[in-house]
Amino acid sequence: MNRNDVLIIGAGPTGLVLALWLSKLGVQVRIIDKTSAPGTTSRALAVQARTLELYRQLDLSDAVVLNGHRVCAANFWVKGEPVARLPLSTIGEGLTPYAFLEIYPQDEHERLLIERLEAFGITVERNTELQSFEETGDGITARLRLPDGQQETCQACYLAGCDGARSIVRKTLDTGFPGGTYQQIFYVADVQARGPTFNGELHVDLDEADFLAVFPLAGEGRARLIGTVRDERAERVETLQFEDVSSRAIEHLKAQIDQVNWFSTYRVHHRVADHFRTGRAFLLGDAAHVHSPAGGQGMNTGIGDAINLAWKLATVLSGGATTKLLDSYETERIAFARRLVATTDRVFSFVTADGPIADLVRMRMAPFLIPKMISFEAAREFMFRTVSQTTLNYRGMPLSEGVAGQVHGGDRLPWAHDGEGDNFESLKNPTWQVHVYGDTSDEMIAWCTEHHLPLQVFDWRPAFETAGLARNGFYLLRPDTYVAIAEYSADPKVIERYFRDRGIRPFFG
After folding, report:
1. Is the pLDDT of residue 336 over 80?
2. How far apart are CA 332 and CA 305, in angstroms?
3. Which spans are transmembrane here (predicted)?
């Protein structure tokens, strides 16, 4: 009987990234998908800064940036006129190497991931469907329907459900998926067009009750329109055509549509699964959480799930930790998913709320408040950190400990950059490591050497203080570059105790 370390159900971005990360870490994976081919159309567009930072570990960041489109500003429109412009490149400067919004359509994104996965000798098994599975002692036994209709029984140590909002994995586990469905119908249109909103920047129309945004694509005049319909047109979702919604874009955003390359409609839910882990089975991406497309968070959150789980599975499978480590996947990711769904729901509810009061707030007050708000550096930075997911942290959770400077255990390591370089170079290696900014003890150096734990000691520079890093303390970093320990001392016994208490043995020596 075929047996793998991890059986991955679903070959969207979440499943592909999980397969890639695990393969890089030496884990034997099998990935199946019931579709006959990768998608040729897509809804997800945005690749946020935090995803690009983590993609450096797979040497993917440069390829995404090279082949995508860099969005340097977001514009807000009311009554056919731009009322505010948010310069993304300026507000993110100094916070990340990727101080912009990257547009890279999901279908192109998937092709890149598949190509990189094939370099590890892993091919997505198409037209292959999970029918059932059960946990059996030391693993999972799954029954698959193969392309020729035959059935196969296979085994794996763990199973990852990356199979979307209608997940068979979630249904088999009988995990609740509470939430609701937005009353609006969403539409997506890829167009070739002309006008002031087709200048390579993001544009959002705040008029009336229907939401409309223009996302630029690579290539002159190419863009994706994402909008909503709520009136009697929403009753005929199956027959809705671009002509039924195009007049709004033409009138409000002064667009001249030359060609429609693709048009689709769909409904959106806002839900979070009750559990992200049941025994040896895990839920990731849309199988675990779905929400409105406000802020371009969905695909990035699924990728974040995959990266969080990958290093933990690899550590456990290699004997570097007890299975207790896997409990932290749900703890860390479900908390973020719940906050994210609540946040995107509030934003979407604001831009689509109906009635005279909502129209007054959106069309009269927002044009006044948005420019005022983004004139404050702190407000601009907060907005960028939130959307870019660089503010995401695991503070107060089981794998997070201590505080040093402005950095807490559970935080993303701050990026510090000046003319002498930056502190992210060593993060390309997805291993546990220690960072020291300033000086450290001979004991720390000797202990890290003895235990084969990489130690990076940076000469103290003003850029580190600006980033909020503490001088002469240390930061123990997880393989996913989040801070495990933030500590003012230079005592390696703190690290030794941390690993012992959590049943982690990431090094041998």
Report:
1. yes
2. 9
3. 6-27
